Amino acid sequence: MRLLEFTDAAEEILKDAGESIRAIPVDQIEEMVDVLLEGLKRKILIIGTGRSGLVGRSFAMRLMHLGYDVHVLGETITPAIGKNDIVVAISGSGATVLPVTSARIAKKVGALIIAITSRPKSPLGKLADQVVYVKAKSKAAKQKDFFLRQLVGEHESLAPLGTMFEISATIFLDSLIVELMRQLGKTEGELRARHATLEGL
Asked: What is the reported pLDDT for 197?
């Protein structure tokens, strides 16, 4: 069996993800770090659906390892969010109904909204107090064949659907955790101590 698309796709994903991360405005990263440092004693709610929701869950786990009071929307044990709490909403399109509706409700009770999106002028972006712009190709290519796309000049990402946003958002949030570790003076050993201990039983 010949791998016709794998290598091209992997190389393009790595290249696009690197470009996406480098394009995030530094001031937006600094603002999010500052809010999270100040929010160590506040509740944090992570919102996302589909693959963006999985990215959010991964970020929530790392925040928990850092000692944050963090929750994921949809869990039965998620507490009420109130004034000065923090909501991190992840949506490539910025128009997904659940994140937008939830952010709107959280805004009404005085929570601070951080939107991670590839469309800053979207409904979610307009609702947010802070926006992190993760630039990513998200449209599906019209031509399926890689070489045919090159011939016709169609240079959309090989990654399907919203993959580039989700990969880039994952890299961004994992890198953010490393910065928070540094500024909070946390070691990997301290994070490991808060990791699940029942998995190996």
From this structure: 66
Can you tell me the distance from the alpha carbon of 120 to that of 139, in angstroms, rounded to the nearest whole number? 17
Measured distance CA(58)–CA(8) in Å, rounded: 27
CATH at 70: 3.40.50.10490
Distance CA 146, CA 137 (A): 16
3-state class (DSSP) for residue 66: coil
**Most distant CA pair in the chain, distance:** 57
Evaluate whether residue 78 is within a structural domain.
Answer: yes
Task: Give the predicted TM-score (pTM) of the model.
Answer: 0.85
Q: What is the residue type of 83? A: K
Q: b or e along 90-107 (b: 16 or more beta carbons within 10 Å of the residue's beta carbon)? A: bbbbbebebbbebbeebe
Q: Which residues contact 64 (CB under 8 A, 6 or more apart)?
A: 70, 194
How far is Cα 178 from Cα 15, in angstroms, rounded to an integer?
22
From 38, 166, 179, 188, active-site residue: 166
- Please check whether residue 88 lies inside any domain of the structure: yes
Q: Is 166 a catalytic residue?
A: yes
How far is Cα 16 from Cα 158, in angstroms, rounded to an integer? 10
With respect to residue 119, please indicate whether it lies within any of the assigned structural domains.
yes
Total structural domains within the chain: 1
pLDDT in tens, 6-47: 888 888 889 999 999 999 999 999 999 999 999 998 999 999
